[in-house]
């Protein structure tokens, strides 16, 4: 995944910082020199900026929707494959669904606008009088539509795959829904292999490789979630946020020595390196709270 290192800070909007990953310059180069149909490169540059803007408002759609359901917003790091997996909504299927769906909904909202502009340009005869402007308008319509359709493929981690996962979550729970969605994703990528080989474009190989990596890490995450979900529960404690009792077992990783341990068994002391923690995060919902907030009332001695 791209990080802020090697990225340029562009601006801050709605409290969200926008960064441009260096790989974008390759995309610009690819677009500007690979673009056909314009009489001057200025139009290719404009097209590249327009693509950038479409991707950016798509990402803002995700982040603002995530914030609207009480989730944490992330910086937007734009790189040629978009901004996949940078939302962390509350761990509820509805919140997840809205945060993911808001991105493609931006493209859905743009569709009638681009269509209207294209129809106006056509009826105004731009095709003959201003061929560059006409081709630009046509290309924008095409980019938005292709991005939308492609993104809605039910292949994890594309938005379509993550929407599928959120819907499955309602029926199968957090761990199994992720497992099913990532397996469908891997099968989907395999089904696309003939097309990828026929197209023989670096772009497709990169995207497929990226999708495989994400499916794989999603599958590993699903297995970890399933282990947490199936673990017996410790009495006397519950998450201050989601009210789930903590699982019994080594489900916490020490920040110092990276060894897993059961943080509730030792009251926050890592048995390996003796690091002491006063707060812990919930394996179910991710909330970080001090230990005393985790203790349930049954643990408090009765009042005299
Ligand atoms: Zn998206
Ligand atoms: Zn919790
Ligand atoms: Zn440790």
Q: In a few lines, what is going on in this structure?
A:
The protein is mainly alpha-helical and 304 residues long. The protein is 56% helix and 9% strand. It has eight helices and seven strands.
Q: What key attributes describe this structure?
A:
single chain; 304 residues; mainly alpha; three-stranded mixed beta sheet; 8 helices; 7 strands; 56% helix; binds zinc ion
Determine Rg (CA atoms, Å).
Answer: 24 Å
Helix/strand-derived category reads mainly alpha
Strand arrangement, major sheet:
1-2-3
Q: What is the count of helical runs? A: 8
Largest sheet: 3 strands, mixed
The number of E-state strands comes to 7
Q: Ligands bound here? A: zinc ion
Q: What is the helix/strand order?
A: EEHHEHHHHHEEEEH
Proportion of residues in extended strands: 5-15%
Mean pLDDT: 85
Q: Separation of termini?
A: 57 Å
Account of the 3D structure:
- The chain is elongated.
- Helix 2 (41-68) packs antiparallel against helix 3 (93-123) and helix 3 crosses helix 6.
- Among the domains are: 7-152, no CATH class; 252-299, no CATH class.
- It has helices at residues 23-34, 41-68, 93-123, 126-129, 131-151, 159-199, 202-230, 291-294, and strands spanning 7-13, 16-21, 76-78, 252-253, 260-261, 279-281, 288-290.
- By secondary structure, the chain is mainly α.
- The strands form three sheets. It has a three-stranded mixed β-sheet.
- Helix content is 56%, strand content 9%.
- Strand 6 (279-281) and strand 7 form a beta hairpin.
- The chain has eight helices and seven strands; from the N terminus they run ββααβαααααββββα.
- The structure holds zinc ion (3 copies).
- Residues 58, 62, 103, 151, 159 line the site of one zinc ion (ZN).
